[in-house]
Amino acid sequence: MRVTETYNSLCLPVELRYFITMEVKLNGKRALVTGAGKGIGRGIVKRIAECGAETFALSRTQQDLDSLKAEVPNINIINIDLQDWDKTREEVSKIGHIDLLVNNAGVGCAFPFLDTPKEEIDRLYDVNVKAVFNVSQVIAKRMIEKGEGGSIVNISSILSRTAQPNTSAYSSTKGAIDNMTRCMALELGPHNIRVNSVNPTVVMTKMTEGHEHSVTNLLKRTPMGRFADIKDVVNAVVFLLSDESGMISGESLRVDGGLGVY
Fold this sequence. Notes:
Helices cover 42% and strands 14% of the residues. The protein has 9 helices and 7 strands, in the order ααβαβαβαβαβαβααβ. Its EC number is 1.1.1.10.
């Protein structure tokens, strides 16, 4: 948010006026975003770069990385399939110290509980859970070695706590992320490393296109009457990465238009 004459003319306390007009600065920071080629991840990595951080975008799709690099030339791109545990560990280790990590990469599927195949369960847990463990272990160790703390944001989902048909595998991975986030916050907090998750409602990206009919019941239960835009999630993530959230750790921040009140 930027300072405007409108804000300056409001009869607000100085502290509140500062808060609503602050502009997040990440100058001097180094940031890594996984799943940065499309959708939410692409929005996050572009915003972090705009805020001044040296930014690394990780994706398994080279074409997405190439188009991102053409759009934002100062972004560093890394092509890795996060299902490859050892290769991921090797390549992420080459980046060096990272101050800000966003574990955004994720995959989904829609199967009834009784018919969910093992291959899909393995794929979801490899990317949505195990990759978060893997990347975060490498990055957090570097943060501890440098001794200057850091911030980690894991992208979860409102489905970590809201039941929805045909999402048992996906929802269970996001429940795991929420609990992993709390455990990471507990263990890494003494090193001044904050860990939080962001839990969006449905965000209309390429991943969710074609499934609108299956989530209309969620829209009906959303007090604000709409699903989230990519920018809604990006804003929450950047806030949690920034020093403005310096005493927030171990939280799962719903970005759901009030759906979570049910």
